Amino acid sequence: MDRFFVISGCSGGGKSSLIEALAAKGFAVVPEPGRRIVAEEVAGEGMALPWVDMAAFARRAVAMAAADHQAICETAGPVFFDRGLIDAVAGLCHATGAAEVPDIARKLRYNATVFMTPPWPEIYVTDAERRHGLDDGIAEYERLMDFYPKLGYRPVVLPKADIETRIRFILQRVGVY
């Protein structure tokens, strides 16, 4: 869908802060599947935590991202996704070593422009839901920068700047600002 925009990139690069700021400005947003899954797993059995079983975590992320995509189809205007289906599929392929991309990644589409938060060591922090280090985040970023174009997406790297500057950058490219 041309009005569905993904904000992806390096863990700890400011994606969730951007999503929160876009929501505060009245835009429709979809929170990151991974953080929701971690919260659910910590409250439950914890069998699909990324540090316990990455493949199970990725499968849950694919299912949740696909459900998010379908659930928000009727929403008017631009919708901003904190990560999304393509990130989940990339994670699943990495976790399982699968070379074949699941068909769902070609069926449920986003706008071809994908906004990528670059590695930003100065703001990177771990927390209860992000236990991996910056090196792992950078490796994931590099995988995503390689993966998105294979499915016809154009990654656009966001500037390392304050949230308002990043929002203006995004909205100008989306054609809203």
TrEMBL record:
Transmembrane residue ranges: none
Segments forming domain NadR/Ttd14 AAA: 5-166
UniProt-listed InterPro entries: NadR/Ttd14_AAA_dom, P-loop_NTPase
Protein name: ATPase
